[in-house]
Task: structure prediction
Amino acid sequence: MGEPVVRAPLRSLTRADAEAATPVPAQLARAAHVAARLLLQRCDSAVAQMPAPLELARAMRRHAGGLLGAFNIEVAVHGVLPAADRPLLVVANHVSWLDSYVVNAVNGARFVAKSEVAAWPLIGPIAGRFGSFFHRRGCFRDARRTVDGVARALSNGYPVGVFPEGTTTAGDRLLPFHSAFFQAAIDARTLVQPVAIRYRTGDGCETTAPAYSDSTSLAESILDVLSSRRLIAELHFGTRLAPHSDRRDLADEARATIFRLLWPHGSDLTRRPPRRRQEAPLRLAS
Result:
């Protein structure tokens, strides 16, 4: 049997959210602003070569911050930001296609993404140029290739970001963590940085507006974000974890840390998340 999904209550949106909905003309203006920002980033990235880790992190922060500004999304940081010049495996819960931009706005990392993202207009080519790792979900051979690439990047000083749930949620639950990419941190002897992501409206209510699922198109998700007058993306940085010999245990520790960051008053936070018993062993290329 699979693991039970951890759920937590999500506050309902209030009338203020409906009153704060952006009028259609304003949506169009902001959409044009977003498109212009993406086109500018595409032109910039088309001529860029893969820079050194610190330079890449600075470029990521600049571009991610510009895009979030076009969407009128603010980023609120809780906890201690890691140094920008050290490699880390950044692991986070996954709510939206915006998640990587939110993290990169404060702590640039090369993210692992599903292979479909590479084909997204503008976003895919920009992600590729910034060193993203694209992998085919459900393919163990491709997972080995991607994990090996992530391990090399960590060994060369690049921070790398992954979403171990393997898919998105509405932010009201935390799915079991796949442990494959934690092996990269073990092999590269790199610390793991847990990060919890939550989205709120301007008045402090949790919102599902940025949530992105397989049943929602990218265009629909963008329109949902544009319909929100103001969004706040919260990043909660937890205590960094030292790598050890068991990637499944490391994944469990990261998941428990993110759970506590999201729901510090939850009733079952002291319970260790159950281990994924049916996960296939991963052998990296030498």
Summary: The domain at 16-262 is CATH 3.40.1130 (Glycerol-3-phosphate (1)-acyltransferase). The chain has one domain: 16-262.
